[in-house]
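for the writeup, i need someone to sanity check this before i put it in the appendix. the sequnce is what the collaborator sent (i think, or maybe the updated version? ugh). structure was predicted straight from it, no edits. if anything looks off just tell me and ill rerun, i have time this weekend
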Amino acid sequence: MEKQVIHIEAEVNAPLQKVWDIYNSEEAITQWNQPSPDWHCPSSSNDLRVGGRFKNRMEAKDGSFGFDFEGEYTEVIPYQKIGYRIDDGRIVNISFKELNDQTVLEIDFEAEDENPLEMQKGGWQAILDSFKSYTEKTV
């Protein structure tokens, strides 16, 4: 059965190179990769190349829950596109587009079967919004 694809996006008030660098920097990922203030990302490893792997540790700050978000890169076109397969088999595609003095990030990801689509979209969008906020503060 084909999986439902969810689309999210953000316009980031920062140049493309800055957006790309912050999106892919292990150190920066630990600063922005959380859906809400009660979560954090204590560690990140990122080997950004086709066949390379990433692993981001996501944890509730109160220690009640945590998980590793990991997968393998299937496509990397610098400053344009990243594709990867999450370890559960789902596909994610990210595009980076310059628009005037902004960068538009668009993410399409296959939904999982455990949580409602709106909850998944909201969680991923919250992380992307956190990325936007963090990136715009560092410009």
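DSSP finds three helices and seven strands in the chain. The two ends are 43 Å apart (CA to CA).
thx in advance!!
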